[in-house]
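Q: Structure tokens for this one, please.
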Amino acid sequence: MAVPRNALRKWERVREFALGLPGAAEEFPWGETVTKVNKKVFVFLGTDDGSYPLGITVKLKDESAHAHALTCPGAEPAGYGLGKSGWVSIPLAEKGAPAAELLCDWVEESYRVIAPKRLIAELDGR
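A: Here is the predicted structure, written as tokens:
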């Protein structure tokens, strides 16, 4: 399956943004790309090899952000019971998919939910 170039650009931008957050680290459990802070995942990036549609999964505790994310084309509560905790899966290749800027805002919100206070303070001090 070919990866749409626009979706791949968004995916790369989101990945780069996530890795730029204080204490962020990339790991590859289950053959997927995730970004963690303090050994906890704050964004699931899936794979970029074309084996699955490109998308991201983030934890959104803010009710309006969570509701907004779920209005995106193809978005749904994350599987494996994660949706109950506020995790939302957002496809990037759908027509009308969110812009990279909005995706990065959601990644930052997910980071703020997961990261320790000292790292959030470091982010706020930038």
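A few notes: The helical segments are 5-19, 63-70, 100-114, 117-124. The chain has a mean pLDDT of 95.
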